[in-house]
Amino acid sequence: MRKKKLETFRRLVEAHKQRAVNAAMRIVGNQHDALELSQDAFAKAFFAFDRFDTSRRFYTCFYRILANTCTSFLRKKARARARMGERIPLDVVPNSTPSDPGEIAERDEEKRAVWNAITQLGPVYQQVIMLRHFDELSYQDIAEVLECPLGTVMSRLFEARRRLRMELEGKVK
Asked: Which domains does the chain have, with CATH numbers?
């Protein structure tokens, strides 16, 4: 029985590890931390695996653990920086792979603008944008991850997109 659990979990980790690292990277903005935090989240998921709701997809359940792990990490980091009197940078943008220098510069500028606009949204709106547009979860899966009604997901996403558009157009009130 234990061997079956280990093998099942190993297959799930293999299937979702890159997605988990990418999601953690979007939350914490640092590749090294993202790798470490995704590993921590998988370890936590393993110990809670027997309690997972088998009617839901693994990643939907796992994402909650990953997001909480990353959020706790960021809180600890923010408290440590606050004690040292440092500000937390809001302009973290993942690097792109070079091809045409002009195109790369333009694309990077657009990515930076979008990322900065996302960081200006409240945490609730950031989370729903990330889950839908970066993790490509369905509305139903987002509702399960956030443990809220489907209508709430839809209204939060609508408002998040509206605020993001306003932020990008420079019309934030």
From this structure: 1-89 (1.10.1740.10), 99-173 (1.10.10.10)
Q: Give per-residue pLDDT as tens, 80-102.
A: 665 655 443 444 444 445 567 77
pTM beyond 0.70, yes or no: no
HEC secondary structure over the chain: CHHHHHHHHHHHHHHHHHHHHHHHHHHHCCHHHHHHHHHHHHHHHHHHHHHCCCCCCHHHHHHHHHHHHHHHHHHHHHHHHHHHCCCCCCCCCCCCCCCCHHHHHHHHHHHHHHHHHHHHCCHHHHHHHHHHHHCCCCHHHHHHHHCCCHHHHHHHHHHHHHHHHHHHHCCCC
99-115 tens-digit pLDDT = 677 777 777 788 778 88
CA separation for the pair 63, 81 (Å, rounded): 26
